[in-house]
Design brief:
The structure is a single chain. It contains seven helices and nine strands; from the N terminus they run H-H-E-H-E-H-E-E-E-E-H-H-E-E-H-E. With about 280 residues, it is of the alpha/beta class. It has a single domain, classed as Uridine Diphospho-n-acetylenolpyruvylglucosamine Reductase, domain 3. The strands form three sheets. Strands 1-2-4-3-8 form a five-stranded mixed β-sheet. A hairpin with a 6-residue loop joins strand 5 and strand 6. Helix 1 packs across helix 2. The longest helix is centred in the first third of the chain and has 19 residues. The radius of gyration is 18 Å and the shape is globular. Keywords: FAD, Flavoprotein, Oxidoreductase, Signal. This is FAD linked oxidase N-terminal domain-containing protein. It comes from Verticillium longisporum (Verticillium dahliae var. longisporum).
Length: about 280
């Protein structure tokens, strides 16, 4: 699976390079060997060729909506393109693409931070997790699987029907992945952090490390808010998905649906097809 995906991305990279009129570098150590803007163009073009329905450029409705879906105006930047994966395999492909093309990228979860560049980027690829929206309660009602596209308000709304709750954010607009990767609920809440269960961590060179148990508070998560420079971090950076987060499908999981969101047909309270105001 990974071999086929890598071959597709390599072909996409070569085609993008041909369109740009440059010769792809087999190996280079610094951005200066080609130039960051050219690398961003190649990275976006390669992704677009392999995932045409998941890559968006300025002027596209999805790009414009996603690029404004931030809690703070300090995060309003200008990525070269936006990549919106719908499953773990897409995320893996996006990371692999960044390594092959040496393109800088940022990952945005719930977008609830005011630190410039933590979940957005200028010129590079912005990977948004809006369509990673698994949401399910276990049969024993002791754990919940939550995709990194959700905010806590939508999760609480969904759990009401099961008469259960989780220790999450105190405010509805707070994103699920950022809070979990930053350490979980504040200690003043007198609640324990979520208990880790096997998830689908992503490693920096692309593969999905299934069955591993990530650590709550691990800040370099594929579902978190982190700008990754492949040349600086290499394969040593671990992109661990947070607890109870995997898969895809479903609606945007934000306060209102974004253009082109994935709808798996499962109607859940507070998700996707209408806007909710949380008190």
């Amino acid at each position: 699976m990974l071999g086929n995906m890598k071959s597709l991305i390599v072909l996409g990279y070569a085609a993008a390079a041909a369109l740009a009129g440059v010769t792809p570098a087999v190996h280079y150590e610094r951005e200066a060997d080609i130039g960051p803007r050219t690398l961003s163009f190649l990275g976006c073009a390669a992704l677009k060729l392999v995932h045409p329905a998941k890559v968006f450029y300025p002027g596209d409705a999805v790009y414009e909506a996603e690029n404004k879906a931030f809690w703070s105006n300090t995060q309003l930047m200008n990525p070269k393109c936006i990549f919106r994966p719908v499953n773990a395999e897409d995320v893996s492909a996006g990371i692999l693409n960044s390594r092959l093309t040496q393109t800088k990228f940022a990952v945005r979860g719930g977008a609830h931070t005011a630190i410039k560049g933590f979940n957005s980027i200028d010129d590079g690829v912005l990977m948004v997790l809006s369509n990673l929206t698994t949401l399910a309660v276990s049969s024993d009602r002791k754990s919940v699987q939550v995709g990194p596209g959700y905010k806590w308000g939508a999760v609480y709304k969904y759990l009401e029907q099961y008469d259960v709750a989780v220790a999450g954010g105190r405010l509805a607009p707070v994103g699920v992945p950022g809070l979990l990767l930053a350490g979980g609920p504040l200690p003043e809440a007198n609640l324990p952090p979520p208990a880790p269960v096997p998830a689908e961590p992503q490693v920096a060179h692309g593969p999905i490390a299934t069955g591993q148990t990530p650590v709550v508070g691990q800040t370099q998560g594929v579902a978190g808010q982190h700008v990754h420079d492949p040349a600086a971090h290499g394969t040593g950076s671990q992109y661990g998905g947070p607890p109870h987060m995997s898969g895809a499908g479903g609606a945007a999981g934000a306060d209102e649906a974004l253009p082109g969101y994935v709808d798996d047909g499962v109607k859940r309270p507070g998700v996707g097809d209408q806007k909710f105001q949380y008190q």
